[in-house]
Amino acid sequence: MSKRNTQDAKRAARERLRIEREKQAKKEKTRRTLAIGGGIVAVLALAGGIGFAVTNLTGGDSGGHWETAAKVAEEGSGGSADGVTYKAPANTSGKNGIEIVIGQKDAEHTLQVYEDMRCPVCAAFEQNVGATAKKGIEDGDYKASYTFGTFIDDNPTLGGTGSRNALSALGAALNVGPDAFMSYKEALFSKESHPEESEDEFGDDAYLIEVAQGVDALEGNKKFDQAVKDGTFDAWAMRISQKFDKAGIKGTPTLKLDGEKLTVDGQSPPMTPEQFSTLIEKKLGGDGKKQEQKQ
Q1: What span, in angstroms and rounded, lies between the C-alpha atoms of 180 and 174?
Q2: At 13, is the pLDDT very low, low, confident or very high (cuts 50, 70, 90)?
Q3: Which end of the chain is less crowded, N or C, counting CB atoms within 10 A of the terminal residue's CB?
Q4: 203-261 pLDDT, tens per residue?
Q5: Are β-strands 110-116 and 143-149 bridged in parallel, bridged antiparallel, or unpaired?
Q6: Which helix (H) or strand (E) holds 238?
Q7: Could you report how far apart the first and last alpha carbons of the chain are, in Å?
């Protein structure tokens, strides 16, 4: 297939996704429902969006496969139960492969990113700031460490398995390569593919595979497809989620540079390229000016 035909096919796939999402939205007409207070999910006013506060979430998957995956995750490497085996993707590091670090290993600074794959504000951040942050990684201004939570699945008002399932699929992409991971994350958070938090499209393996067809390294990749269908990295995804919980993160997206939180007002994360670049420059001093000059 020619490159042009390949690109046309990708555009057609994205268009089908867009049309289907519009149809679904019209059918359901579901209004976002968030439990405020009472220790569920609070809504925080952010620059350019709305963020989630994470507090004592319960509910979600009360048993079955994901509960088993969580137990296996606690065992770590070598753990196995009821057909679920702990397996970490390639291109990870640290004990049990729970370190997801993208970028030049010798980069002096580290940007820590905490997200939930179903989080609408994370999607807005990635759509608005993702390219700027990625350029800083590519240019060696910093390497990026990613940690993902699954707290939206645990909200009893919303429920579902999309945060877990999408994280497992991200593991399958990372197993292919860092570039595939970054491109797939971008595709999942895109306007065309990211569902409302009241929907659980990421809980559907077929949907995750369809979105992957817009990523060069994953298009028609049978090993990736099978890993998503088999849930190869489900226990690993739960281990990453456990790491997120232990980090004490109170809302997503949360950004830290060398362990110091990046906020525009002491609370809200940067939601525009300008805000992000200004904070990077401020934190890195003279080195940070490189980030602004490369815009």
Answers
A1: 6
A2: low
A3: N
A4: 999 999 999 999 999 999 999 999 999 999 999 999 999 999 999 999 999 999 999 99
A5: parallel
A6: helix 234-246
A7: 35
Return all residues near 287 (Cβ < 8 A) that are at least 6 apart: 108, 109, 141
Nearest to 96 by CA among 87, 108, 105: 87
Residues present in the chain in total: 295
**9-to-174, 176, 253 alpha-carbon distances in Å:** 24, 22, 32
- In 3-state terms, the chain is what percent helix, strand and coil (to 5)? 45, 15, 40
Q: How far apart are CA 220 and CA 210, in angstroms?
A: 10
pLDDT tens for each residue of 150-186:
999 999 999 999 999 999 999 999 999 999 999 999 9
How far, in Å, CA of 257 to CA of 284, rounded? 9
Provide the pLDDT confidence category of residue 14 given band limits of 50, 70 and 90: low
The residue behind tokens 């800083």 is 136
Distance CA 272, CA 189 (A): 16
